[in-house]
Amino acid sequence: MEALLEERHYTYADYCAWDDSERWELIDGIAYAMSPAPSRIHQTVSGRIFRKIGDYLDGRSCQVFFAPFDVRLNAADADDTVVQPDILVVCDDSKLDDRGCIGAPDMVMEILSQSTAIHDRVIKFKKYLQAGVREYWIVDPDSKTVSAHVLKDGEYVTRAYAATDTAPVHVLDGFTLDLADVFTE
To answer: Cα torsion for 141, 27, 126, 71, to the nearest 10°?
Structure first.
């Protein structure tokens, strides 16, 4: 991901004024251009996860969303961080408005690609932890692995899963994701 060339501090108000034909994320006031379109495998993995979570949540109070969907992580403060996670779960309707999510979702999943891997593993990891996202998954289609980070006492406890594992989703009581279904060819 590439930072915008003009060096200045941007806010959500600036972000809303930008051309909708281009996708951006805003982290601590720095604008990052997003890739125009994810790869086929990225979309396949994302779609499979979204469908599984969506089926589980049917008739329940939590909701699942997919990118592009704005998440304003620090709307109550500087309002200078807007991310578009690949998949997110929100269990508190008061955090939702017509533009997206205000505050930390309960769960976020990022599907790695070559252009976003470092950004997702380092910058977004720190932002999601700081914002209090209760569960953050980093899904790697290339290695067919998942790093699940669960918030405990202000820190993430990390567990790694392979394509043959069944991974529990801690924010969705009783729900597990069979990763063989996600990573199948």
So the answer is: -70
Helices (H) and strands (E) in the chain, counts: 5, 15
What's the farthest any 2 CA atoms get from each other in the chain?
Answer: 47
pLDDT digits (tens, 9 = 90+) for 73-130: 999 989 999 999 999 999 999 999 999 999 999 999 999 998 889 999 999 999 999 9
Q: What is the pLDDT of residues 151-168, one digit of tens each?
A: 999 999 999 999 999 999
Q: How far apart are CA 62 and CA 116, in angstroms?
A: 27
Instruction: Provide the residue type at 150 as one letter.
Output: V
Show the domains of the chain with their CATH numbers: 39-76+85-183 (3.90.1570.10)
Place of tokens 């979204």: 50
The secondary structure of residue 125, as a DSSP letter, is H
